[in-house]
Amino acid sequence: MKYRVTHKTSYAGHEAVSIGHNQAWLEFRPVDHQFVESFSLTILPEPSVKTRRIDSFRNPVHAFSFNEGYQRLDVTATTLVTVRPPDTAPASCSATWESIAATIKQHVQNDDRDAIEFAFASPRIHWNAEMRAYALQSFTVSRPMMEAVRELTARIHHDFVYDSRATTVNTPVAEVFRLKRGVCQDFAHLQIAMLRSLGIPARYVSGYLRTIPPEGQPRLVGADASHAWLSVYCGSAHWADVDPTNDALCSTDHIALAWGRDYGDVPPLTGVFMGGGQHRLIVNVDVLPIG
Amino acid sequence: MATGLTSNPRTELTFECPAFVFNEVFAPDGTPRPQWQKFLNAYRNVPQPEFARRNEQADRMLRENGVNYHSATEGGEGARPWRLDLLPMLMSSADWSVIEVALSQRARLLNLIIADIYGPQKLLEEGLLPPEVLFANQEYLRPFCGLGRPDISPMFLYAAELARSANGQWWVMADRSEAPAGPGFALENRIVSSRTMPSAFKQIPVERLASFFVHLQNALRRRAVRNIESPRIVLLSSGPTHPYYFEDVYLARYLGYTMVEGGDLAVRNDTVFLKTLSGLVPVDIVLGRCAESGLDPLELGGYAAHGIPGLLNAVRSGNVTVANTPGCGIVGAPVFMAFLPQICERWLGESLKMPSISTWWCGDANSFSLVISRFNNLVLKPAFQKSGNEEFIISDLTSEKQKEVRARVEAAPHAWVAQEKISRSGVPVWTQNGIRCGHAAVRAFLVEDEAMWHLMPGGLIRIAPDSGPMQLSVSAGDGSKDLWVIAERKVDPVSLLAPTDQPAELRRTSALFPSRVADNLFWLGRSIDRCDFLGRLIRALSERLVGEGNVDLTEIRFLARALSEQGQLEPGFVVDGMESQLPTLAEALPIAMFDPTEYGGLARTVRDLTRLASLVRDWISPDTWHRINVTAETFRTAQTKDWRDLADVVNVSNSLIGDLASVSGLIADGMNRGPSWRFLELGRCIERAGATARLLLTAEIKRGGASPGMLKTLVEVLDVRMTYRFRYRDNLQRNAVLDLAITDETNPRSLAYQIERLVQHVDRLPGYEARPLRSEEMRLVMDAAHAVRMLTTDDLSAPTPRSVQSVLKTVEETMSVLSDTLTRKYLVHSGTPRQITDIAGGSQ
Fold first, then answer.
1. HSE (side-chain half, CA atoms, 13 Å) at A160
2. Which residues of A touch B268 (CB under 8 A)?
């Protein structure tokens, strides 16, 4: 499946921002089943200085800053990307979840040791006993890993209401769990928290969904904006992506952009600025299937 | 019990030292250890009362130098005085160099570990560190990955907390790798002890500390990115709320660096600049004295006072050096102690020369069962937090609390370490009631200069009242001691000033004048004059209230109204029929005077004086600073006595006015007429002119003439009694008083004089000469000057002096607008930084 992904962020205020420093996670990271044909990042006005680096999770990051003030900032990322279906899950994903968790804890293999980075609490992901108990209803004794993960994804989808007014980017996971409401980012954080509470590594994936569904299929939730889901580690270097917002096992409708421990590691656009009075942030995402 | 010699108990340094701890002074057979002999002889010659007197003198010096630290437990405001026991702790230089070798090895090892953690992470690959130590650790900050430079090691300044156990073995209790606190306190302790005991320093060859700071300066200079002869270095502080702010100020001054907070620096084109009055000046090296986790709000989040958005990218771009390199803090966590011996063996091919306090990481299954088996004999700490935060001495806890801690450890064993308890060595501590035994926590400081680590020949000793575990922070414990390293031969003096025959390049200005300093000086100026003005009003009112015989109610009403307009008294006292209120007023005045909650009130303004003075300590003379401190201290201690008597109010305001006059004198006589003086003076003139105009408006000099009493009060509060008497004797006339107060340019207290000076100051503000036409602030002061100058003699003697009233109003308003204009234009260069994500609201 080939897409043109356009991600436009506009940031406008009544008064000019005097100085601004920004970082953007808008360039696609290398992913096995994705091929990036072209990428461009347009920033208006032209920043005083621009740099690109690779972060510690190997995502590309663009940093740019302005010495002169601006009233309006437009950041547009355009990418042509081909997505193939990910490899089917290896046999390890059907092992019992306890055996997988125990192996990771031993981290004898290099791959397990890399995965363990995503097994602990992170700045935006903490859990409590109730969240763990909720997860354990699906992670019953000796259940195969993927089966339990799929059921947990389905339950979150069923028990939680998609509500873009209930939360903000800074709402804690425990609050989302209590409200039973939120957006894709909240549900991804929540399921990650539950998995980590069981000792299973899970990472946060920032990405996109195809905007126009294939004929005869319903439109997916969260398609007009950037999307978020999670990757679960099943041992032996295999990660499986699941989307609690749509109760889906991710395939060619999901296009991964960047990943980290939680949203805070890979926000599409962040920045620190001075001045500028009241401001509005407008995000437009278009994911167009081509060919 | 091991005790000392007892031949002459009056002058011998004897103390009761428990048998289970190492006695620093006496060997088990009761003979003094060799390095103590000379000191004991010297001490023997000092009579007890004399030693007591010197201890008091030391206390006073520390207090007057403003040596303090903020105690986090007392919340916000409480600055606690630093305490020094003049009895030093002594080490022979042979013993100290053994410690130097051991700690140098440790510092080298820690540097390798830091570079690896934020670099290739071979330690994980080789199994020398379990991955949890990084990945479960919130102090492992990914933006620091790859920040290190190949040409320098990440850490150049390091401190170790040491303790000596009963068998004489030294142990490392904690590592301080981020921005070690204490070298400034050690230096101040040394300065005070050498001044109070000069003869001891003459007789005993004590190693000087200065060599350490020379190394520090050289090492820092060599870390510059480019090969620059004299790189521009700033000391980054997290500001006055930080517990060791005093030390930041002290070190900046001693080392000759400009002290800055985050807001003083700005990143442009990936280069760090200092905001000065004359524009942005590039900075080469930032000496960090703050938590690294707040350094760059862009990448690390948060709003730390020392945060500089974009700093990390500037470091990555190779345009600035931050020292220590951000990321060094991580190895200060106790969990690393459990792995140091193996890493040392494998990476340095030798064993660790000084052991860490025995440490078990509970994340290891074997260690965990060992810890559980002897749980109640251990100290439990969070594995990843820097030592000195939360810790549990299990044997001291109730059984309930023990269970609770155990449950926490069992729930997340990887997040905990257990450590052995250790009994610290005993040292004599001088108290009012004689010598007692204290237990020594030694902080040793090291600096890396040209690939060699140098141990400070001295250090900071803190005293624990008992031998058990103590908190490891600089402020913990029961006072401090100086550490003397006794050399084998005579000690050569070292000074920070490099001897040179090269004449200096002559200058009239110093290049760096941060805008924030100008801001603080401006407000310091305003506070000095505000204190003086309030002091005079209060003195005048209280004198009238205690006065014998008939009280002139108009005078009292006028003064009470003037005070209530300044926010110093409740307006309720100003109503008619106030005769009945006089007793209440007499009671309210002393209370109001010392009410620290009243904004703009005297107590608050006096407190502002010391606060602001300490912020600009580098920019005013030591004598001025000292005088301001004493002024505030005198005022503050007067209030602690329980008194309500108006006579005391008169005394306190008298001494306040006198003290402030000497502050003014020091400023007038000694302060260089550069930009710092100018901003101080701008503040003073604006405050004085505004307050004088307000007072004259309050006096409502109307038809029918002001009463002689009123005029007398005005002359008194405006401090022009002498001049008036010389010119007019006792003939009090309204127009003459107004002339003296408003239009007489020869009277330094008049509006005309103050405004004329403002014109001169504004004319010399930076960048003024380059602009066409008059600036906004210039037009403002010229307006006021013009209004005052255009008054005629008829205006002053008119029955209803309307034109005088309107001039006064103009002056009062102009001063307030001028203050805002100057602040906006010169003093506050930027607002508070904000995060885009915080305003983004809901996102998908």
1. 33
2. 19, 48, 65, 67
Q: How far is B529 from chain A (nearest CA, A)?
A: 33
Phi-psi bin for B76: left (phi > 0), alpha (psi -120 to 50), beta? left
Helix boundaries (H) for B547-645: 553-565, 582-593, 602-615, 622-640
User: Domain of B768?
Assistant: 673-828
Task: Note the pTM of the prediction, 2 decimals.
Answer: 0.82
How confident is the model at residue A174, as a pLDDT? 93
* Average pLDDT estimate for A119-128: 93
- Which of B135, B273, B295, B408 should be substituted to probe chain A, the one whose Cβ sees the most A Cβ atoms within 10 Å? B135
Q: H helices then E strands: how many in chain B?
A: 29, 22
The answer to whether residue B308 is domain-embedded is yes
Round to whole Å and give the CA distance between A85 and A99. Answer: 27
Give the span between the Cα atoms of B559 and B585, in whole angstroms: 12
B641 found inside a domain: yes
Q: What is the mean pLDDT of chain A?
A: 88
User: Could you give all domains of chain A from N- to C-terminal order, each with its CATH number?
Assistant: 2-83+267-289 (2.60.40.2250), 91-260 (3.10.620.30)
- Provide the domain count of chain B: 4
Q: How many A-B residue pairs are in contact by the CB < 8 A criterion?
A: 128
**pLDDT of B280-291, one tens digit each?**
889 999 999 989
Q: What is the pLDDT of residue B3?
A: 42
* A174–B contact, CB cutoff 8 A: no
On whether both B658 and B684 belong to a single domain, the answer is no
pLDDT of B20: 86
Give yes or no for A107 touching B (CB within 8 A): yes
Query: What CATH number does the domain containing B273 carry?
Result: 3.40.50.11290
| pLDDT score recorded for residue B833 | 67
Does A16 contact chain B (CB < 8 Å)? no
Instruction: Single out the residue of B609, B610, B622, B619 nearest to residue B516, CA to CA.
Output: B619
pLDDT tens per residue, range B506-545:
555 555 778 888 888 999 999 999 999 999 999 999 888 8
pLDDT attached to residue A24: 95
- Which of B747, B742, B750 minimizes the C-alpha distance to B685? B750
Specify whether B610 is located in the same domain as B712: no
CATH code at B371?
Answer: 3.30.1490.270
Say yes or no for a CB contact (<8 Å) between A110 and B269: no
> How close B843 gets to chain A, by Cα (Å)?
6
| pLDDT greater at residue B476 or residue A185 | A185
Could B841 and A271 be called an inter-chain contact, meaning their C-beta atoms sit closer than 8 Å? no
Query: CA-nearest residue of chain B to A224?
Result: B844
Q: Does A267 lie at the interface with B, CB-CB under 8 angstroms?
A: yes
| CA distances, B87 to each of B162, B193, B428, B430 (Å) | 19, 9, 7, 7
| Domain contains B154 | no
CB within 8 Å of B126: residues ≥ 6 apart? B346
Q: How far is CA B22 from the centre of its chain?
A: 36
Band the pLDDT of A91: cuts 50, 70, 90: low
Q: Are residues B596 and B530 in the same domain?
A: yes
Report how far residue B511's alpha carbon sits from residue B772's, in angstroms, rounded to the nearest whole number. Answer: 25
Cis peptide bond prior to B218, omega within 30° of 0: no
Residue from the list B125, B297, B844 with its beta carbon closest to the beta carbon of A225: B844
Candidates B755, B772, B758, B776; CA nearest to B826 is: B776
Shared domain for B372 and B297, answered yes or no, is no
Torsion of CA B761, B762, B763, B767, to 10 degrees: 120
Q: Is B819 helix (H, G, I), strand (E, B) or coil?
A: helix
Contacts of B198 (CB under 8 A, 6+ apart): none
Q: Do the Cβ atoms of B139 and B389 come closer than 8 Å?
A: no
